[in-house]
Queue: 3 jobs
Job 1
Amino acid sequence: PGSGAIINAVGGVLGREPERLLGKPSAEARRAAQRMEAQVLITRDSTLLGEDESGLATRAPGRFVEWEGGGAPNPGVQPIHRRATLVFTSGTTGPPTAILHSWANHLYSAKGSNANLPLRPERSEEVVSGLRPGDRWLLSLPLYHVGGLAILVRCALAGAAVAVPDPDASLSAMLDASGATHVSLVATQLRRLLVAQDGPLPRRVRGVLLGGGPLPEGLLRRGHARGWPLHTSYGSTEMASQVTTTPPGAPLAALRTAGRCLPHRRLRIDDDGQILVAGPTLCLGRADGDQIQNPRVDGWFPTGDLGHIDAQGRLHVRGRTDRQFVSGGENIQPEEIEAALERLDGIGRAVVVPVPDEEYGRRPVAFVRSDEGGVPDDWRDALAAALPSFKIPDAVHELPDAAIPTAVGMKVDRALLRRRARA
């Protein structure tokens, strides 16, 4: 389909004025929508339904389609460079920020993704004749997450189908029941699916796109050993989803990277090791009321992530610039220690935070989630073989449930862990 059809397809889900719609969990959505001067808020929370004094109308998803006139035969075609969507970041280092995209941002994001991971149209000649089924991507990420929104555009561009899950069913059950050929997962979902699906995935599943942050080594090993068609990636809300992705059939060594830069994106590493990105998928800016802040610095968006590109052109992400700290004059990147811990047998998740120290300034303390529960006895000796002594945590504690995100796209509560580590 042409770009106009894609705009109409996604606009049919988001409404005639998708730039006015915000998807965000919890009652915080009303405050966020009011701050962005939104006209409509779609929510399943019955306590928020109605209209408030600011003029913000809240509607349940089904009622919104009826109210908005979703059955109109032709919602109209709009230029692809017009303002299209506002998507909130997950607030890695502060309050969530609204990112403004154009339809062109989403379109070029989908083009690059589909070039790496092609989708078969639902109405291709082979599909219609019954020779093989069309592709369908399970809507496993929420639409307030850029990864969920990207699923709609990818499928619309390719003519593939979106499999909308039953919100009360498990991910494993929906993967079986929906006939999905592709699915997008964050680390928490991958962990749950590995527990629920003991063995290969259904043969029809040809792509498992992984993103949303670092993936523990153990999860990658387990999925790869079962023959799952994994694709690791690196992306951001600002870049309308993926920037880099590994290709089909990537070996485990390649899956430990974030893959190569996809078409319609540009990527480079600056002198300080920060990842810079650009291209037609880069957002219009950060929205704050009527103000749009341009995210570009000399034409590039500084991501705040550190990394390097290897000889094969694959991106390796080291961590966040704002998480690095100094201990006794040495730079420590928490993500490096986390990765070393997650390579140890039985540790499925690790988070490292700095704590004040009179002698060294700050020292690392780790929290882990193990298969057996508790903390492995031999963690210190095992880390000594992988890390210099100044990077070995002073202590390792069990990762509390309170710090683990309960919604897709949310981040580990590192502030809570810092308080626990100092206690």
Job 2
Amino acid sequence: MSFRSPVRLRLAFMWSALLALIVVMPGGTALAETTKERVLREGKIVIGIHNRTPWGFRDEATGEAKGWHPDLLRAAFAELGVKEIDIRVTEFGALIPGLLAGRFDAVASGLSITPERCRQVAFGAPDLKVHDAAIVLTGNPKQIHGFDDIVSQKIIM
């Protein structure tokens, strides 16, 4: 596979991130099988996403999960031979609890990597990096140049 195509590069990156995100869940058997091993053996995976357009959302007409994350997930797992991809749309706050409870094999839904979340689950490589920014009026009349300037303001919209 050539990685010169931006689409193929993005798919390869997304796949590596997804594999790293899949967490080992207790199997209850004498021989521990990782989630990754089970998914590849069975050819099916359950993935949790939250309802946020355009990244991932439930199409009201069909009930199907649509958007950027579902498209990437389907393409990445299809290349691995995973034929059954069950993408479940849930509330954002239910993603990590659902993963820990075994309702999902993985989540792919724009979770920021924080120390608290890292104590609960394993993360793969991020597929998006966003910096914080403030939008100011033309000419920056309140002279906002950083977080300290924002905190000192009495009125913030």
Job 3
Amino acid sequence: MGDIENEPGANGVADQSTTTEQLARLEAALRALPHFTREVFLAHRIDDLSYAEIADRTGVNVKRIEREIARAIGQIDYAMTTKSSPRRWWRRW
């Protein structure tokens, strides 16, 4: 038998705390996105719609959908990897 410290889930409380914190940060990052950006991102990631399908449903071109999803990914990534607020992530000065 191996050490209990090396077994998966051995740090149950710590793992749960980290997961809860990450979920809270993700929720905050999603709430901080502009409405259209959030809806486009969720349509692609949750509803599994293609960029073309989202463009057809929203009435905008595919390039705009690409930009909105890239924007969402950038803001979410920044919010998940820094301690600062996800709002105004581009203003670091």
